[in-house]
Amino acid sequence: MKEITFNDFYQLYQNEQLSLVDVREVEEFQTLHLEGAQNLPLSQLTDTYDQLDKDLLHYVICKSGMRSARACQFLAEQGYDVINVQGGMTAFENL
Fold it and tell me: Ranges for the Rhodanese domain (predicted)?
């Protein structure tokens, strides 16, 4: 599985338009999220993943990197190009 540190991701995020998939639950997403992120909770991902464009590279984020790692594994199995953002939103809060 491809991974990127939060700091490296955030530098890209600030300078490029990225496809960012946030797999936290709706309540967590509503409390705090990065602008432009698409919320597809891990608990519903098997029903919603087809909303993603297979031609794009997707960065996947959660709170710490555990749920996003599981989401990346699933999405990669479905043929998507994905990168897990290590540290997740916890790293963002600690910037």
Answer: 14-94
